[in-house]
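Here is one chain, start to finish.
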Amino acid sequence: MTSTLSTRVTVFGLADLRGALAVGFDEGAWITTAIGIGQLIGGISCPYLASVVGPRRMLLAGIAVFFAASLLAPLSPNFSAYIVAQVFGSLGAGTFIPLTIIYISRHVPSHLKTYGFAIFAMNSEFSQNVAASIEGFYADHWSWHWMNWQYCLVLPIMFACVRYGIPQDDPDDGSKLRNLDWPALLYGWLGFGLLYAGIDQGNRLDWIGSGLVSGLLLGGFLAVLAFIVRELTTSHPAIDIRILSRSDLLLFFILLAGFRFIILSIGYIIPVYLQVIQNYRGLQVGTVLLWIALPQFLLVLPLGRLLQQLDPRWTLGLGSALIAAACLIATNLTDQWATGDFLGPQALQAVGQSLALTSLVILISRSITPAQAVAIGSFMQTSRLLGGEIGTAFMQTFVRVREQIHSNLLGLHVQMQDDLTGDRLSAYGRALSSHASEGVAQAMKLLAGAVARQASILAYIDGFCAAAVVAALCWILAAFVRSPGAARGEASSR
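Its structure:
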């Protein structure tokens, strides 16, 4: 949860951070990029490094680095120092999710693994949607410093749990350190880091219209290609990408990326609608999103019990269908929607996401051997972060372009000689009760604002439709998932 919150709280508090650090919009946009790159790099490499130095040591080191960076970041003397602290902190936080997967796979008793994975899957929905309330509380009652310092309250507890609760690592094996695949790690860090930066900055800089974005994407693609070639040709690969030749695992990671796409797409549309159309503040936005977060606590244990009795493929398909239905219900959006109107689709989406993600994680765990957990941890973190980032970047660009299209189409019907336009302007003028010349100018501004408002509403509806299409595709793909027993048999034979 702390790993996910470190990104989402910063996203919601970006305006407060820019003001506190005295930086502009363009500079401030790199704060979330730095966090995402750090988490992606940490997530890709930490399972492999953990196999060399031990998962417990790696996790304790990640906690210590994240604690130090969170403590020092608000005390940074300038913006550059703050960015550096964020990168190091996210490197530490990036170890949490992959190593959690490894720990559950290897050490949790078999009769409790379903509950462990259910709790693990819950963290995504809960953390994504509780972040707005947390940031809003800090902005209204405390200070922006607590967006970093909050982790210093829980990380010592986490350190103690790991220190005394996770089994000791095996003694160091010098041969693993001598055979460390540093070229692959460097290619992976460079490639995926550049790709993430290009995707994250694409909407702001107009994608291929920007030389910087084009260079980031091209450089990232070439480095990732070098990483793949290296891993396919070396005798001691950092990440065994050959296991992706199994169709079921590749399908799982596509589904994981698809669900993350939907989650962060909806997580973008609803807050933007509430802030732009309804002028909500952070705490008010958080009230709506809490209806996705809070049901997770009620669902997690019953869901774990249910998945011990049922084939997870059924709940995966049902969850996908519920998510699609929730998105379709949200297409009834109007400029009058407020907190209460979102409760129905949000509650339905909460149930769907819990069913789908928990089922997917359990299917992945049942389809692999413990020895494959290292590679699976890296793949899951990569799919999770890149899928979510692609979803956010796509939805930002999609909503912006659709808003421009709707604004143009609506504007074609606003003609000065039209009686309806004249009546609307006259009504605005009477309401303003200003001098004739000023009244006309202000009435025109109000009419332009009404057109822009409706164009935004239509663009958000299109965004929900796009999310529903992706959910429907996930539902179709879920039909091709094989039974865990068959997939596990193939994994063992390999």
